[in-house]
Amino acid sequence: MSGSQGGRGRRIVLWRHGQTAWNLERRFQGSTDIELTETGVAQARRAARLLAALKPDAIIASDLRRAAATAAELAAITGHDVAHDAALRETYAGEWQGLTHDEIIARFGEQYAAWKRGEPVRRGGGELETEVADRAAPLVEAAVEKLPDDGTLVVVSHGGTIRTTIGRLLGLAPGTWESLGGLTNCCWSVLGQGARGWRLLEHNAGTLPEPVLGDDD
Predict the structure, then answer these.
(1) For the chain, how big is the Rg over CA atoms in Å?
(2) Would you call 141 a catalytic residue per the annotation?
């Protein structure tokens, strides 16, 4: 990856959206456009106050409502415009979308097991994780290249997309991406530039430990 080229000391903050009703139901959202709950909005406002202290230089976000509404809370504090892009949407998961975790295991048990083993799987006939990284990671890299030295980019996206993007930027083999633990709603991970590329500085930061609900959505 090109993380060590160009400016010095840049950071990428990858921020997961706030809570939705489908998160609480452990229902796979994927690219379905679900709104934040009132709790999700409150989470975004709290997290935005913390992230504003990092003095971000730019904000990019998925165009799905749950991510766009989360990003809007940080934009309101910082005054930055948000660049929305469909490339940061969650994994399209076909027939899995709208199903609960238990329903997915009941209907697609072997497919689910193969995915958990790290095999390339089109969950529900949808996208491969590598295809998600193919669309999301280059967008993030292009946005980073526009930052000043020591600049900070905030990326507002979804659990699965953030994991695949981190895996790609760190140069990890796709089969190992699952080893990156899930993000709690409205928590974030931070990548920093090192001499040999991107390094994971923080993961699932922003709260005391809480259950990770509906990570890939």
Answers:
(1) 16
(2) no
